[in-house]
Amino acid sequence: MKITLSVIKADIGSIGGHIKPGRRLKERVREYVQSKGTKIVHDYVISSTGDDIAILLSHSGGVGNSEIHGLAWNAFEAGTELAREMGLYGAGQDLLKDAFSGNVRGMGPAVAEMEFEERPNEPFLFFAADKTDPGAYNLPLYLSFCDPMYCSGLILSPKMSEGFSFDIMDVSYTEGDRVITLDAPEDIYDIAALLRDNQRYVVEKIRSRKTGEIAAAVSTTRLHNIAGKYTGKDDPVMICRVQGGFPATGEIVEPYSIGHFVAGFMRGSHNGPLMPVRQNGTISYFDGPPVVSGAGFCVHQGKFTEMVDLFDHPLWDHVRDKISRKALEIREQGFSGAAMLGYDELEYGGIVDRMNKIESRFKIRESSE
Ligand code: MG
Questions:
Q1: What is the pTM of this model?
Q2: How confident is the model at residue 369, as a pLDDT?
Q3: Residue 104 C-alpha to ligand 1 middle, in angstroms?
Q4: What is the pLDDT of residue 270?
Q5: 3-state SS of 46-108?
Q6: Structural domain of residue 221, as residue ranges?
Q7: Position 367 in a domain
Q8: Ligand 1 mean position, distance from CA 255 (Å)
Q9: Can you list the residues of the chain whose pLDDT is less than 50?
Q10: Which of 36, 202, 206, 265 is most deeply packed, by most CB within 10 A?
Q11: Does residue 369 lie in a domain region?
């Protein structure tokens, strides 16, 4: 059976600042998908990570399906209506256009999708990150799909012996989708040279080279300028198929024990360590740290099993302690140097206005030589 997995996620309002959408808001989105989606979806799951609500859907409509995208958009609009009634902070903030036009890509919400022929058993993982951008997945994906130090299957499993191909997008190119496909292992130095720059070159898709099957899809899009606001580098979602010809679940999740520094954190303007957290978790310290949640499922004839929380295990408590220390340490230096993003990357306009204002006060000193 050929199925499509789609994750569409948006921040449509949260409680107490950029913290958590709350139970009632998620319930409203769930009710909408339940009442309007039954004819077009096989199954669905609603979850939240930080202030974002994600709708995970299985269906037979293919990638970029306007009915599926419309369902998610309308569910978020229904949620926004409640968020406004409740006076939630940032109600509807990720719905950047007034009218839906067939595809939510470039309209505010983040989307990750893949279509494939379902295996007899089809385990897959769904990740959602908050207070960061799609480049946050670059390092974990590199380690899981290129590096036998993290993915032992690359040397132990004949099904993975030919490696994987990476579609990588230059998200700063705004005229169209500028994408390169590189093959691991032959091109790993080129892949590393691109993926070290999380702000510009971002993994979009990964495929098995042996079978051509899709392995991973990330909600990567180039920057769009909508109503004067740049979008496209938003809190990202990702779907990964696992086992068989793909890495094992543990080989996909292990790199999240690093807590590597990613862009995001307070006002999307700082660097902080990416912390793996439990499902439906909240945000706290300095509107962060950047977080990622992970859910495991099997899908069978389009129906999901119950969810397993990938980061709900005692080992991850130890990892979270380590990453908390990293977060506290980089925060000790406040705005200085590596703690805050470079001038070109600052999303909020305030510092640009400030720099323009003081520009005229600079003087070129006459040479005293
Ligand atoms: Mg968010």
A1: 0.96
A2: 66
A3: 17
A4: 95
A5: EEEECCEEEEEEEECCCCCCHHHHHHHHHHHHHHHHHHHHHCCECCCCCCCCCCCCCCCCCCC
A6: 2-359
A7: no
A8: 22
A9: none
A10: 202
A11: no
